[in-house]
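Please review this one:
***
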Amino acid sequence: MQIQAVLFDWAGTTVDYGSRAPVKVFVEIFHRIGIEITEAEARGPMGQAKREHIASVLAVPRVTALWNNKFGSEPCTADVDRLYADFLPLQLSVLSQGSDVIPGIPELISELRRRGLKIGSSTGYTRALMEAVIPPAREQGYSPDVVVCSDEVPAGRPMPWSNFRACEALGVYPPSAVLVVDDTPIGIQAARNAGMWVAGVTMTGNGLGLSQADAESLPEPELIQRLSAIEEQFRAAGAHFVLRAATDLLPVLDQINEQLAKS
């Protein structure tokens, strides 16, 4: 058996270096109701479906306390629904700012396809949101064979359903013939829950959370320190491999195939 398919998370792994587009929106929707959350709090649940992401931010003790002080009660389901309703149009309006394909991804996909692999993607975005970002990504040379959105499965990550749905659409089985590439602990957990191989990406994604220019301008000792901390989180979540970028994937793929050939 060999790896038959690679499933990429969308933002921070193949598109939107630093996974910055959704963070801006999470911070803004809370700001609009008078609650100031930090970027770290906005990034914490990244990888979840966006409604669940909002609920997770509201459950952060500091944010819950701010909400209680302002509104006199703890946030409830109706509050999550209201924030989510604000989130969707605002996210749609800024998605064009997060539609740049990460350098080297089109070349990587071409090589994977040359090797006979199928390409899938999963995302915490809804289908309506993805309709705004798939076309520009395609124009830049990145077009997965299938994209599974958060509103097309019963539950988002860390449940494995989006990974299973992608495999079903691609006609790939067993799950152990699939390699997932993700930039969040929760995405890594979803891959492990699906029984798939998983590689975590540290530098281009949510963990570091910087643009390419800002990431590359960090002093090397600081960069190494920050990436090492992200790697620890990914290893704890179950990552089999940890890379700086998805473009470093080919040696990992070769290593997995060698291991599978011996099993």
